[in-house]
Every structure is written in C-alpha cells, then in structure tokens.
Amino acid sequence: MMFDENAGGGGRGPSHAEALNVLARAEPAGLKALAEQLLERLGDIEVLGNRTGLVMVPMRDTVENVDFHLGEVLVSEAHITDAVGAIGYGMITGRDLERAMAMAVVDLALATDIGAAEIETLLTTERRRLAAIDEDRMRRVEATRVEMETF
Amino acid sequence: MAYVATRGGERAIDQAERLFREDLGTIDAERVETIRTAMPYLVDRVMGEASFYSEELAALALAQTGGELSEAVLVLRAWRTTQPRIGIAATVQQEQLLTQRRISAAFKDIPGGQILGPTLDYSHRVLATDVLEGTPFVPPAVEPADTAAPAQQPSLAAWQRQLGLVAPLPEAAAAGAEIPDLTREPLLFPASRAHRLQSLARAETGGVLALGYAAMRGYGNAHPTVNELRLAEAEVMVRHPSGTPFSAGRIRVSQAEVTAKREYLDLGFAATFGWNEIKVIASATLDLNSAAAPVGSPVHEEFYLYHTESVEASGFCIHFKLPHYVTFQSALDAMRDAKAKKQTAAANLVAEREEEPVA
Question: Which of residues 38-67 of A touch B (CB under 8 A)?
C-alpha cells in the first residue's frame, strides 16, 4: 500500500484520529501489554503487513508557497484484519515493529468494540502523560520569552 | 582518466578495515544510546545530511564510523535504499509546528513574540575542564514559567504580507506525489524550487556555511538579515487505511527565512531535518542570492547545489586516494618527454653557437 496523505480521504472520525495520535506516542510497555490482553479476545487475525519503511515528509516554503521534500522518516507499520474483515492499523516513527503491531491490535479492538474499557483507560493515562510532557516542556520554553523593552 | 587493475592488496585492505574498527572497540546498544541522548545536535546534523530521519540509526552510524561524518551520512543513505517507501506524509506547514525557538533579527516586536528556546547564543564559551578533574557539570535548572508557551506561532511572513512589506504569496504548487523528488529524478538546471529546497535540506552543513558565508561577506548580491528562525517539532501526518489522518510521531525540524531590502522585503528560505540553525541560515542566504546570481559565482544555484551535496562531494574527494597509477604514470611520461626535448633543444642551441665562426 502506498498512501499519499495529501490526497485526502474519509476516515472513522475525529475520535479515531485522536486515539491513533495517542497510541502512536504511547509508552511502549503499556501498549504492548494491553495488546497482549486484547489478542486473546480478538480471535483469528491475519497479518497483512508488518514492516519498516519510509514516509516522505514534504514541507511548504513560506516564500513562494512551494511544497518540497524535506526528507524521509523511518517508520514501522502493521496492518491486520480479523475474520470478518475489520482492519487494525498501526504506524509509528522508528523501527519498533512490535510497537506498531501492538498499535494495530488495539486499533482492531477499537474497530470491533472489544476491550473498550481497558483501551479507554490506556488512552486516558497516555493522554494525560503526553499532555504533561508537552506542558512541562512548553513552560520551560516560555521561560525563554524575551520581554522587549523599548527605550 | 584511466585506472589499472592491481593485485596484492587484499590482505592489507582486510587488515586496514580491521584496524579502523579495532580502534573503535566494541559497539553495543548502550554506546549507541549514549550518542543519541548526549549528542542530539550531532545526530540531527547527520540525519539532515542523510535526508533520513531515525535518531537511533543516525547514532549507530556515528558509532560505527567513529564520528567520521561523511562516512556516517554515506552509511545512513545506503541503509535508506534498503527500505520501501510506504507513503508521503501531509505537508508540514510553518504555523502548525510545535515551536520551541523562534526569533527575528529584522523585527523586534513580532506577533507571538520572540522565544529564545534552547540556545548557547548568549553564553560564555568556556570549556568545563573541572569535569576532567572529577567534578561533574550539573547544569542550572530552568525556572519554568507559570503558563506554557503557545504550541504554535503565527507566520511572520504572513504578517509582513498584510503590511505590504513582502510580495504576495503565489498559488500553492504541486502537492504530495506530484512534488518533484531528487531521490527519483536528477537535478537539472535551472532547478525547480522544490528541487533547490530539497537539495539544500540534504546539503552538507560545512559546504552551505562556506558558500553562504562568502555571500554574507560580499561575494553575493544580497546581505541577509534573519527574518525568522525556528526550531520546532513537526507531526508526521499519515493516513489509516480507513482514511483517518493521524500523527505517527514527531520529528525535529529547523527553518529560516532571511531577508534583504529591495522593492519588497525579498526573502530566502531553507529548512532541514533536525535542529541545525547555521545550516538553514546559510542555505536561506544562498536561496536569497540565487535570483540575480551570475553563472559561475558561488551563489548561483548550479554552483552551490552541486558542491554541497555531501555524498557526491566527499566521494569525489576521497576517490583521489584510489590508485591513479596509469593516469599519473602517463603524466610523468609526458613531463619527462617535455624535459628531454627541452634539454635536447638547449644542447642543440649551444652546439650551433659553438660552430659559428668567430669574427
């Protein structure tokens, strides 16, 4: 599969997007442990793909409004399906294939409404952890703001 | 140029590589992790020049090449070719960056304010030699502000356009798979802007600094002022098979706009993977100078793009170490021949003079 993010498309809504955002940056041990639990309840799963690869990242030039390629990012991807054709998908930056697979398993569980409570617990915990990291970092960044005085 | 096949060096070659690697010792995951965490700016530089973002693999490349940067970039680019391209992410846009450093040298009061972020710009450059005497250097802690800095900062150029200081923005050009890609097609001149900026993004830092510095010192046609410099993190926005867009993670990026005053404020632009502000300022200076650059000058795009491509430049440089025996022997023969002819001509001249009758 080759995707072009710029081509647009539908999707399963903002809550799905938000869940994927959190799962992609979730603490690996907790994510993998949850995936192990969910696997037992998901039944037979077919792995459509589990590989490392490259995602090209374009950037927009602020001078002439031209998109150009900044470079490629190493990612790990996992793509799975269950017996009825529901899809689970994970993609993370880096080369941890297990983490990508764990994300795909949790995504499949989300799609089939299995383990919703456990998943929500993980998402809530990770949402708070990630927000706290950003909050802490950006408070430190704010400390470097220049308070300009004109004289 | 000619080459000659030689034999007899196989053992020497094998032992030479062994000697290089033996000098570096055992490389384990701990060493790689130490490099990744202790030298993020070096890792950033290598990722930028390799045009390949993986902090872990960049640290490994540095470990196994002993920090020989050209080799580290080469081995990373080589590894990259083993990987399939899975997709193209959404275009990173300036106003969406999680910005951690954002300054302007051209305007004091800018929308969003000036945020210094992590920098040594205003520090005393003093080596902490006490560390070597057994006293660890413990950095003083940052005193965090009560509130967090805004995650995103507005575009300075957009504000300048509203004031009529910068030329209006043209319509957006190609996106996604339509963007010209240097890794799939050759660099031709005049280069498309997409090729120029991609080439600068993967250029060798020292190379663009040298040529950008030449422009700054007067060998260009525009003297730069930093309009805006950003160090930030960008989301890698990909798409789930169902179509849901999401971020697969964050990457560090740098971007710079430099300006010179003409009819409008002319702007030059550059960006790269990782936090490497010297590279983007120098690159943006080259971009700024390109428009009116005479062919053959250091600020003409053909000159600076060809000569700052890290792997090609270092590869061409080190190839001169390889046997050139035939070429060199040929030059030596020509030199001896010329010398012999010159000596013969001189001897003939003396003989002719000796034979001339004395008046």
Answer: 51-67
Among B90, B100, B248, whose Cβ lies nearest the Cβ of A75?
B248
Residues in B closer than 8 angstroms to A2, CB to CB, are 85-87
Per the CB < 8 A criterion, the answer to whether B259 and B228 are in contact is no
**Which residues are bridge partners to B30 per DSSP?**
none
* CA dist B132 → B36, B124, B129, B261 (Å): 22, 19, 5, 49
B318-329 b/e (C-beta count within 10 Å ≥ 16 → b): eeeeeebeeeee
Residue partners of B189: CB distance under 8 A and separation at least 6: B301, B302
Size of interface A-B (CB pairs under 8 A): 302
Q: A65, B170 in Cβ contact below 8 A?
A: yes
Residue A6 pLDDT greater than 70, yes or no:
no
For residues B120 and B265, state if they share a domain: yes
Share of chain B above pLDDT 70, in %: 97
Gap between the Cα atoms of A89 and A101, Å rounded: 8
Number of domains in chain B: 2
Q: Are the C-beta atoms of residues B89 and A70 closer than 8 Å to each other?
A: no
Show the DSSP H helices in chain B as ranges: 10-24, 29-38, 40-50, 55-65, 69-80, 156-162, 193-201, 205-214, 277-290, 301-307, 310-319, 325-355
Name the least confident of B120-129, B146-155, B268-277, B343-352. B343-352
Q: Of B265, B293, B308, at which residue does a domain stop? A: B308
Q: Is residue B323 part of a domain?
A: no
Domain limits for position B277: 99-140+151-308
Q: Are residues B216 and B162 in the same domain?
A: yes
Would you say residue B74 lies in a domain? yes
Does A89 contact B48 at a Cβ distance shorter than 8 Å? Answer: no
At position B165, the amino acid (one-letter code) is L
Quick check: B142 and A140 CB within 8 A? Answer: yes
Beta bridge partners of B230: B102, B255
Question: Does B86 map to a domain?
Answer: no
Q: How far is CA B223 from CA B204, B268, B292, in A?
A: 22, 11, 13
Instruction: Tell whether A117 is within 8 A of chain B (Cβ).
Output: no
Arithmetic mean of pLDDT over chain B? 92
Are B129 and B234 found together in one domain? yes
Interchain CB distance below 8 Å, A67 and B91: yes
Same domain flag for B14 and B63:
yes
Give this prediction's pTM: 0.91
Closest CA to B223 of B106, B78, B95: B106
User: Distance (Å, rounded) from C-alpha B174 to C-alpha B162?
Assistant: 25
- Answer whether B229's CB lies under 8 Å from B280's CB: yes
Q: Nearest CA to B280 among B48, B2, B6?
A: B48
Judge whether B24 lies within some domain. yes
Average pLDDT over residues B246-261: 96
Same domain, B64 and B156: no
